Amino acid sequence: MARHWAKAPIERSQIVLFSPTLEDAISDDHPVRLLDEILRQQDWSAWVTPCADHRGRSPIHPRTLAAILLYGLMRRIRSSRMLEYMCGHNVDFMWLAEGHRPDHTTLSGFRKESGKTLKGLFRQIGRLAMAMGLVRLVEVAFDGTRVKANASRYHTWTAAKVEAALKELDALFDRMMTEADQADAKRRKVCFPGSR
Question: In sequence order, what are the residues at sequence separation of 6 or more whose Cβ sits closer than 8 angstroms to the Cβ of residue 13?
Answer without folding.
Answer: none
